[in-house]
C-alpha cells in the first residue's frame, strides 16, 4: 500500500512567474547547483506540444540515510526525477512528477497544481510513495515521504529566492 504525499507552498509571485521559472533551463541549472546534492544534475529539458519536461538526477550519500533504508539497499541512492509542466490556462498550471531509485523497488509520483492567490500563487502537491518490499516497505515509504517533505520545503524556499532575484 502506498503512502500519500500532500504538500503546499505559497509564492509571492504569480502563476505566470512560477511557470516561467519551472520551464526555464537556467532555473533548473541554478536549483541543481544549489540544492541538487552530490552528483545532482540537470539531464535535460525539452518543450514539445506546449509541455515542458525536465529530467534530473540526484543522489543521497549512504551515510545520510536512515538504517532502515541502507539495510535493504546499501550504498548511495541515485534518484532519477522527471517533472512535466503544461501551459498556464485561466491562472493555473498543472504539472506531474515521477522519481525512481536506481536498484530499488520504489517509485514516487503525483501532480502539482499552481494557482493564482491574491498577489502571489499557491502550489499544491498530491502524490504517493510506493516501496514494494515485504515487511519493510511501509516503514521505508514513511521515511521517504518525510525526507521528501523536507526536500520540497528546500525546493520551495529556493524557488521563492530565485523568483525574488528576477526583475
Number of helices: 4
Q: Give the strand tally.
A: 7
**What is the approximate shape?**
globular
Biggest sheet: strands side by side, in what order? Answer: 1-7-6-5-4-3-2
| Elements, N to C (H/E) | EHHEEHEEEEH
How does CATH name the architecture?
Answer: 2-Layer Sandwich
Oligomeric form? single chain
Q: Rg, please?
A: 16 Å
Category by helix and strand content: alpha+beta
Q: Strand portion, in percent?
A: 35-45%
Uncertain spans: none
Proportion in helices:
25-40%
Q: How many separate structural domains?
A: 1
Q: Briefly, what CATH class?
A: Alpha Beta
Characterize the largest beta sheet: strand count, sense, and whether it forms a barrel. 7 strands, antiparallel
CATH topology: Alpha-D-Glucose-1,6-Bisphosphate, Chain A, domain 4
Q: How far is the first residue's CA from the last residue's CA?
A: 45 Å
Q: What is the residue-averaged pLDDT?
A: 89
CATH superfamily: START domain
Protein name: DUF2505 domain-containing protein
Organism: Antrihabitans cavernicola
SSE layout:
Layout: E1 3-11, H1 15-22, H2 25-35, E2 41-48, E3 51-60, H3 67-72, E4 77-85, E5 92-101, E6 106-117, E7 120-131, H4 137-165
Helix pairs in contact: 2-4
InterPro entries: DUF2505
Pfam family, one: DUF2505
Organism: Antrihabitans cavernicola
